[in-house]
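ingest -> validate -> predict -> emit
validate: passed (alphabet ok, no gaps, 136 aa)
predict: started
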Amino acid sequence: MISFNSLSVKFDLPEKRKIKAWLQSLATLENKGVGEIAFIFCSDDELLQINQQYLKHDYYTDVITFDYSENTDVSGDIFISVDTVRANAKKYNQSFDEELRRVMAHGVLHLCGYKDKTSAQKKTMREKEDFYLSKF
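emit:
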């Protein structure tokens, strides 16, 4: 099951059903099932606090994924800063919705086992994001 929630920000995700189906398709194409995936939309400050508290990183980011996957079912909490997604959309000349979908796919790809620490991993992650964005 995929759920969408928000912390202190007022945010209503458009096209929820279509996005759920798309993300389920992403998991299926990666040979994964979908367990419990919770997307939590929040502010920059909230995500910074999570980054500091749980990952010991002192910087802003657009997405943090906590992976609770078991066997071939992907499960986890994916926290997304609506503020940073909005800023990145402007920075990269993308629509907010497109940038948001990229970040959502990014989180699910982490649950599928993809990393993005090295340049090779980042390249693979970007290629996967682009592929799944084309499927939306």
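The mean pLDDT is 96.
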